[in-house]
TrEMBL record:
Name of the protein in its database record: Polysaccharide deacetylase family protein
One Pfam family recorded for the sequence: Polysacc_deac_1
Ranges where the NodB homology domain occurs: 27-105
Highest taxon, organism lineage: Bacteria
InterPro entries from the UniProt entry: Glyco_hydro/deAcase_b/a-brl (IPR011330), NODB_dom (IPR002509)
Organism: Elizabethkingia miricola
Coiled coil: none
Amino acid sequence: MILLTFNLRSFQVPTEKQGLFSMKELDEISVKGTQSLLRILENAEIQATFFIESHFAERNPELVKSIVTKNFGIAHWYTEEDIDQLAESKKILEEVSGKKIFGIRYAPHCDVSAQDLKNLDYVYDASFEPRDISQYLKKITRKTIQYVKDDILYLPVSQSPMTRLPFSDFSFQFLPLRYYEGMVLETVNQDEYTLLYYYPWQFMNVTSPDYGLAFYRKYNLGDKMYHKFSEFLKWINENDFATATLREYFF
């Protein structure tokens, strides 16, 4: 089983570049990237889950409704630093999508307890931790498959059992496709599933210096990323891997 997830919010630029763009322009990058993704996912008949930031959803309701109409999964991406706005944020996303929200992914610096999640009727947490490169060089002991703690199902992003590389958005962008596919295969063989994540903006040509991306983040963006991901979806189908939304697979 291959579980594809996407983190959806307005494209983020460094503070010193923010005056160059309106919120609508930054939203449009993620909107167009998502529309491209929806087309290739639909054509390949592959399922996925979209974690959506509530204020982005509020500004772009038609995109959210399109995701729902096409029967992709919807979950909550919470980007605030504390939980003060969590309940209201979840409510906004539910109102825009017309769906009850059961899953969440939040920023590593946000201190969210299992009780906080249970109070708001979440049942799973698919948050992830950014990793320093030095951690790839030593044994990583974090959990890499699902586990239950205090009645909440936690879904860590998968990690290759051989290389110990996590399946981050950048690993797909940077690694050769055949190598990445090999990592996916060995992970499915060991864990029975692979949980992956990406950002829709990666499928847009945002390499201009105005966007302020680090040089290594510009590698394989836009059309190259779109083609690479299309080939990955083709590989999934050719090898008869099943796909599902997180809620479908775990519940």
